[in-house]
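Dock zinc ion; give full complex structure.
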Amino acid sequence: MKSVGKRYTFLAGLGAGVALSVGLALLMAASTTEEISPVKARSLDVYVPNTEDLAPDEMRVIACGTGMPTQRMAQAAACFLVELGNGDKFIFDIGSGAAERISALQIPYDYLDKIFIGHLHGDHFGSIGEMFIGGMIMGRHVPLRIWGPSGPTPELGTKYAIEHMREMYTWDVAGRLGMTDTRGFQLEVNEFDYTGVNEIIYQENGVTIRSWPAVHAIDGPVSFSLEWKGLKFVFSSDTYPNKWFVEYAKNADLAIHECFIAVPSLVTKMGFTPEAALMVGTQIHTAPEAFGKVMSTIKPRHAIAYHFFKDFDTTAPVYERIRTTYDGPLSLAEDFMVWNVTKEGVRERMALVEEHTWAPPLASPASLKAAYQAPSADHSSP
Ligand SMILES: [Zn+2]
Ligand SMILES: [Zn+2]
């Protein structure tokens, strides 16, 4: 079925002919002038966290970071949350600034325990420490589970990075003992072979996640697919266009691929020399035209470009360049963009979030006893 930006569902009414969904009814109401009123409430086409059930066969993806390696208020670095109708939630990359976006969704932290890191650039895992410490304080009572690639040498792998992050927080963890439930201070690191091609790295509860090599900076980066109930999500993390992505991202319902800012913008906005802009914008990363070529090859139901600062003067060049090579369904991602994915279609909206958030409700009760126990040993894959 063709992917559309907004999906309205027709429901068969019992004995009353055909009833229209609320969305369609509101759309019709909005189109008739007699319903326009200075006092009547109007519906907004936005996603307000925790106000919608997820159907048993529905996937919801929320952009929690879409920016670049440098920091900005408007866009955190790479991070996408995937929520499934079976209750599972997965975080793909957790770049700097992403933890605040995740907190705004007010999801109990026990459910945010699975993080997949595509590579170890700070803009793809810089918020891991905040999820480790802050997530525990905000109510995570289960270990934080992390999946990430090995490297060409042990110290270039995920296990090394996370174990040393844990060491960095030695004083932090020691200083909280006796004051808070510390069960969430445990880490489970699952380092997998970065050279694996479409290898299964996670398979639980009907969800299969695979990885394949990405081409980016030095050896180690990977891209991911998640398959569940006939739906397929793919996420490139960072990569130059490559044969593996083109092969294994096929049949994706939602295909998220990096798309860097256009080369002239790298020169004018970021002060790159033309030579450096060409190298970074077309070789280390994927240029907009190349992003379009990837998507016109794999033909996803919906393509999502991320990894550029989306501004009044950068968006049009990125869009126009993509459209020289791809004319299918497309989103230029920004933080808090939301996609509901079902067999019927893809619905895209923005989330409307509360910025002044506190800890979300607890999914499991805090234990006073656990506050006085040193966290047990972390678990790491061999
Ligand atoms: Zn990178
Ligand atoms: Zn990056």
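Observed: Residues 69, 78, 121, 123-124, 238, 307 surround zinc ion (ligand 2) (CB under 6 Å).
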